[in-house]
């Protein structure tokens, strides 16, 4: 009898151990993946153009249209277009505008959307593909409007990464261009502007300087960033409806260039004829005082003159005047020594 009780006790202990083990659960909670706000054109569902999405040949090269834009990714260099393309017809019959957040790509479906990342400074933007190109520009994978190129602070040596975005008929978005990102509707902020005086400075303004981003009319010389003045847009007659689809209620305030008003130049400028009159613009912020401090810091470090140019409520920080060669050399110093993006402004 005692032996039976002993056996029953052992069985009970074994059953209890199995039950305890079965109730144990590992903590499999995964921390949320951080996301980043991405601005630009708001993706909307648009049917692909019926005749502009066929495989084609140009200059002896074959082009196959991307069938799965959601998984599309590409890395290379970008070129840009400016006023010379204004009003020209795109491949789907729309009127090109340097103030639209648009781009041309040789094989992405049109119209479609893609996230563009400037690998030099980390800036991201969503643009709408509405044309074909660029062509005959080795290494160039996309042609950006002036508005998009300026907001990305793009330079000829800047590498970019493209990630596709697919929009479903119900308006939902998917694709590599949406991973780790939140599409911002009604915001114009760009990445934070670094603290003035820090060893490495970027030209991106902080959120408190959002107002400056509402104006795109920044002067930029090499509007075709590849240095090629050939217009990349196809000028074939429009096919289908010639008007662009209605854009989102979220709009960027894009204004044509007007003559900027100089405010409080730091030092008198020599005659443009002796220097060439080129300026190197490193950034633009809404605070005039911070702009002056930023400009003075850079002028002292690189032993160059500078000025603050006001455009509405935006204050542009520019160094110069310089000759074209001096401006190019200063750009290289800014990049090599401070990882500072910049672009050259013509006289």
UniProtKB/TrEMBL annotation:
It holds the Pfam family DPBB_1. It is found in: Cell membrane. GO terms for biological process: cell wall organization; peptidoglycan metabolic process. SUPFAM superfamilies: Barwin-like endoglucanases, Sporulation related repeat. The keyword Hydrolase does not apply. It is a lipid-anchor. Its EC number is 4.2.2.-. It is an enzyme of class 4 (lyase). Residues 220-250 are annotated as: Disordered. PROSITE patterns: PROKAR_LIPOPROTEIN, SPOR. One of its GO terms (molecular function) is lytic endotransglycosylase activity. Lytic transglycosylase with a strong preference for naked glycan strands that lack stem peptides. Belongs to the RlpA family. This is Endolytic peptidoglycan transglycosylase RlpA. The lineage of its organism: Bacteria, Pseudomonadati, Pseudomonadota, Gammaproteobacteria, Enterobacterales.
